[in-house]
Specification:
The structure holds 2 protein chains of 2 kinds.
Chain A (H helix, E strand, L loop, with lengths): L1 H6 L1 H21 L8 H15 L4 H12 L2 H7 L1 H10 L4 H26 L3 H7 L6 H11 L3 H25 L5 H23 L1 H25 L1
Helix pairs in contact in A: 2-3, 2-4, 6-12, 7-8, 7-11, 7-12, 9-10, 9-12, 10-11, 11-12
Chain B lengths: L1 H20 L5 H16 L4 H10 L3 H10 L5 H31 L6
Classes of the chains: A mainly alpha, B mainly alpha.
């Protein structure tokens, strides 16, 4: 009975949705802490079940694919916030584009450089390039450029958590923590998790972070496949 | 639902263009750029597109879970290089965040 259940794609799709909803509850109970995003709880729960039952990833993914297929339309949907930001921040757009492209470029170059130098595995280095892109875009790009999508997702998540943790104190110490600068740095380097942290800090931080996250994702998605 | 149809239309268009011209960009990104251009030309966001965005955006993390679970296939790699990867991800954040904030610092107040 249990063995048959574990073979059903529908079971794994249901489990994934259940784990996400549980993640949302935990997030609410934590007072919407940026450090316990629902997706992290969801992943930990699903991975635990997959590991404990010894289910091959390919079996899980037959069900996971129901949800995975929605990433395409969701990536297309990112044009909507992108358009809103371009519209509302057009007076600062040159400075923002400069800050976002150079800031994200440097963090990615340093990460890929260190990975190449210290580890020297081509797939890891390639995947490292996608670390500052919001996850749905990072997954699409890493598939495109020959990285490892699952690893891209993990790098993105860890980068987000580290960035949300490190960036506010780092900018405070260096006195660069004006609301706009802080928001932009969080969104550029720590994407969605950073934006979650920015929401806790204030409205301006939040708006600039969301803008930076969207812009970084778009820029990197266009540039990386061309240079890798 | 008309909003979802728009998203699927642009996704299809992007995917077709990607395949037809062997473009280096993922089809979904091309679709996103095409939709962005059409929004800029139009000058505003159609109501049904705004409403599907509000419906889908909170679900975005859910759609990322399956591919992330694929981390179970990378256990050996993470055991070997896990700490080093963590260090690289942490260290590389510092120059990027500083540069980004420093460039933005001189910006004028207000949205």
């Amino acid at each position: 009975m249990i063995t048959e259940l574990l073979q059903l794609p529908l079971f794994w799709a249901t489990l994934t949705i259940g784990a996400f909803i549980l993640g949302q509850q935990v997030y609410r109970l934590s007072g919407n802490s940026a450090f316990i995003p629902p997706i992290l709880t969801g992943i930990v729960l699903v991975v635990t079940v997959v590991e404990v039952t010894g289910t091959p990833f390919s079996t899980y993914m037959q069900g996971g694919d129901y949800l995975h297929q929605m990433l395409g339309p969701v990536v297309v949907m990112l044009a909507v916030p992108m358009y809103q930001f371009l519209h509302s921040m057009r007076k600062q757009i040159v400075r923002i584009v400069l800050a976002v492209s150079l800031g994200s470029g440097v963090t990615v170059a340093v990460a890929a450089g260190l990975a190449h130098w210290l580890i020297g595995d081509a797939a890891i280095t390639t995947t490292m390039h996608t670390k500052s892109i919001t996850t749905p875009v990072a997954v699409a790009v890493s598939e495109q450029v020959g990285g490892i999508p699952a690893l891209a997702s993990v790098f993105v998540m860890i980068t987000g958590l580290l960035g949300a943790l490190m960036i506010p104190p780092l900018l405070k110490v260096t006195r660069l923590d004006q609301p706009q600068a802080l928001g932009l740095a969080l969104g550029t380097c720590a994407h969605a998790v950073g934006t979650g942290r920015a929401m806790e800090l204030g409205a301006q931080q939040s708006a600039y972070s969301a803008m930076a996250m969207t812009l970084t994702g778009t820029l990197h998605a266009v540039v990386l496949p061309l240079i890798l | 639902m008309a909003g979802l149809l728009i998203l699927l239309f642009f996704l299809l268009l992007g995917t077709l263009l990607q395949g037809a011209f062997s473009l280096p960009l993922p089809g979904s990104i091309l679709g996103m750029l095409l939709l962005l251009i059409s929004l800029i030309l139009r000058g505003k966001i159609p109501e049904h597109l705004a409403s599907i965005s509000q419906t889908l955006a909170p679900l975005l993390p859910l759609f990322i879970i399956p591919v992330s679970v694929g981390v179970v296939t990378q256990k050996a790699l993470l055991q070997e290089h896990g700490l080093l990867l963590l260090g690289i991800l942490a260290v590389s954040l510092i120059p990027g965040a500083l540069l980004c904030a420093w460039i933005m610092k001189g910006g004028k107040a207000g949205l």
